[in-house]
Design goal:
By secondary structure, this protein is an alpha+beta fold. Helix content is 19%, strand content 35%. Bound molecules: calcium ion (3 copies).
Length: 234
């Protein structure tokens, strides 16, 4: 009898850990980022003091995709992003804390870097065509479209990116999107931490959705445009 109870418990635990540890379709379907239309575009200078960033919702990088587990905020790594859109552009702001920044390495795999996917045609699958590897602190001269600018601030702890998406950046349109951080400490890749649902791993080739939403009040628009013009005077 005792053996049967033990066996039943083991079986139950196995089933539970399987259900908890693996990505379900539902997990991914219920996982998306809403990028809101803003009255004035942020200035892509690497500093996140633009008023539009205050309101935007936060996407946290809290899924470890190399070893598959939830990643708590820690000194080792804490990261988040926000995204907004305006006039055919998607803007992404990223905040990173890392206990050991590995920058300007001659071998890219020895450098901390951001890995993004921006699939504007919503194929929902990872592909080299729209994969971006962005080493921390580096503002490259030639960028692969639709990426149009990369700017770093605060010694690599904040970043702004812009993507020229034209008509795809319009209310209710959906693209596939992902963002992850390859954390190299002591010259070794230690972790890959992503904005991704529970159970997601780097082997999974499906991508979450980013939805373009819009609910702005035209009166707020006036104030913010003036603020943006003031900032340009600095
Ligand atoms: Ca800025
Ligand atoms: Ca680290
Ligand atoms: Ca690092």
């Amino acid at each position: 009898m005792r053996t049967q109870i033990l066996l039943a418990s083991v079986l139950l635990l196995t089933v539970m850990s399987y259900a908890l540890g693996h990505l379900t379709d539902e997990n991914l379907q219920n996982f998306q980022y809403n990028a809101e239309l803003v009255p004035v575009a942020p200035i892509v200078d690497g500093y996140l003091d633009d008023p539009v960033w205050e309101e935007a919702s936060v996407g946290k990088l809290e899924q470890e995709i190399m070893h598959e587990h939830r990643w708590p905020e820690s000194n080792d790594f804490t990261g988040s992003f926000k995204a907004v859109w305006r006039s055919g552009f998607l803007y992404v702001a990223i905040k990173i804390q890392d206990d050991q920044f590995e920058k300007y390495q001659s071998k890219l795999f020895r450098a901390d870097q951001l890995i993004l996917h921006i699939d504007q045609f919503h194929y929902q699958r990872k592909d080299e065509l729209y994969r971006y590897e962005i080493p921390i602190g580096i503002e490259e001269g030639i960028l692969k479209p639709p990426l149009t600018s990369v700017a770093w601030g605060n010694d690599g702890q904040t970043c702004e990116l812009s993507f020229r998406l034209g008509g795809i950046a319009s209310k209710d349109s959906v693209i596939s999107f992902s963002i992850a951080y390859d954390d190299v400490d002591n010259g070794q890749l230690q972790n890959k931490i992503a904005w991704a649902p529970v159970g997601y791993t780097e082997q999974d080739d499906r991508l979450p959705d980013l939805v373009f939403t819009a609910k702005i009040d035209p009166n707020v628009q006036q104030k913010l445009i003036r603020w943006g013009q003031i900032k340009r005077l600095y």
